[in-house]
């Protein structure tokens, strides 16, 4: 769910335009306050082909996006986003109905079932509008433009998103989920459609002018550019303010940064640990670390964490991380793996390493394609049983007390009172006979009598309760979880979105590389390399020298591409570059540095704003996009500008290109106003600002790649959380990538034939060391 901010933060110009739009909204469906809609999650005609089991089939049947395919048999004359739809709207002079969602969005499913499968509503839509369906994950550029409009005009946003446009793609009204027909004071989709048709015929000029005013205001209000002669703000002050804003929103009992719903927000957690790393001796530094670690412990114990099949659900509907919204997103797994391994680095607490491994186990098993790529998401909804006809949220993941008693009936030897494995499991995971989900957490009654597993006691307390050793208790709980996992594998599976997206694969590449490097787990590092090769093989167009945004799993389990592949967006370049830099530090193989350098040059060419600084989210020359935006919020995913600011700093160290360090500074200057006023909106960018302020250390290992002493020094570096460093291997190959770009490396010599570590700043180095313990001391100074 988005937070509306333009009406409050971007000035009176937008406020005036929005006020005019709301007056038009009043004309369409009642009082202005009714325009603030409730939040939500998030070539052929309509006749089915001969012999088809479907009564209706539309153009979306030719697409590869799982979300578009879900709508391929609606009685709606859907078009994908593209010129065919635009031409039809202009030729027939009809308004466009734009519907945006994604395949694992619960409320998107609801609106499809209620409205888009309704014959009467389908006829109204098809006869009077050009209907366009967009997968927001496939076309984030389109989604961002129209979500910005919806945020500004309705006070909120989310998916499904419903927007009405002129044939020139100008929006004039928008919202999120609508019920099919009127309910109480809330107009239904049918009523809204009929009123829009009436207004289009009788009041068209007002509709068009209202939308134009908002778009023109948004063009000015969303502009982000550096003021002439102004550099980035002071990092210590911005970081301190970001910490204070997070501390103000922190929830003490269970961690996290609001009461409910609660989102994992890995960008906040990693910022807090980075803030601690530069403020270790202060009370605020200690508080930042406590906040981050407590939040991650509570999340790991909560129902948002899948205790049976691993991974994390999207968010918690309550403050205690208990009852989640059950979908699982690849980008969450990727960032949480990094957050948990970072927590392990700074605390040494085994729980955090175990959770990081747990996340990667889930991704390897359930979100991995044989090509090496990663799928996008797993749905929240599924059929409770093979005989069921109606899906329910969480059905795949929840349990009744009776089921657990039937599955775990074995008495446990030595347990007090003849307790069974079920007794121990139910006590530990808070299972209740009547179910453990409160009615207010289950508005549709889908979880009645069900239990969402949540760790209620430590292994030590559970062991004491049943008179067992801690080791025996852990064994029993592990055996019980495996039995439940086996049963879950026999349940109807949730829908899997098998779209493979460059940006999210880049994030996941970082997850496997970072965790593998810290734990010294070669299998995880090799999985990261497989992901990088997948990106090269399937999402890099060698002929055109561009990243492609997405590819798809075909019917025969092969990787497929659509006829007109979608060119990569800023996120795709930035996240893949970051993943490649992390993969280099895990493997010290310079081919990944070489490709990262190549991609950064392309990113600069396609997206850099040479006038205002910073990167545009999408191609600024695309005539179908009414707004040219720079993402100014680190949310469920970090802003690509935040990631790019750090990428540029890291790459400047690896390549000697000082223009990249200057470009990072220009980027940070462009976002200066946002960083100063609301740094909590950009915690990842604040980390980049801190790195720019404190400057990056070069940790150079002079040794042979396969030598044990080299590996020992590298392991020492990887074991520590050092937010302001780059690691590189100087192997003596003067024709290699690094030596060609950094001639100073040729002056570094191994001491007495042993692998030697040099810790440098601006390539001015401290005395070299050969002992891992000495290196550790040097790095922590």
TrEMBL record:
<dbReference type="InterPro" id="IPR036249">
    <property type="entry name" value="Thioredoxin-like_sf"/>
</dbReference>
<dbReference type="Pfam" id="PF03190">
    <property type="entry name" value="Thioredox_DsbH"/>
</dbReference>
<feature type="domain" description="Spermatogenesis-associated protein 20-like TRX">
    <location>
        <begin position="57"/>
        <end position="219"/>
    </location>
</feature>
<protein>
    <submittedName>
        <fullName>Spermatosis associated 20</fullName>
    </submittedName>
</protein>
<dbReference type="GO" id="GO:0005975">
    <property type="term" value="P:carbohydrate metabolic process"/>
</dbReference>
<dbReference type="InterPro" id="IPR004879">
    <property type="entry name" value="Ssp411-like_TRX"/>
</dbReference>
<dbReference type="InterPro" id="IPR012341">
    <property type="entry name" value="6hp_glycosidase-like_sf"/>
</dbReference>
<feature type="region of interest" description="Disordered">
    <location>
        <begin position="39"/>
        <end position="58"/>
    </location>
</feature>
<dbReference type="InterPro" id="IPR008928">
    <property type="entry name" value="6-hairpin_glycosidase_sf"/>
</dbReference>
<dbReference type="InterPro" id="IPR024705">
    <property type="entry name" value="Ssp411"/>
</dbReference>
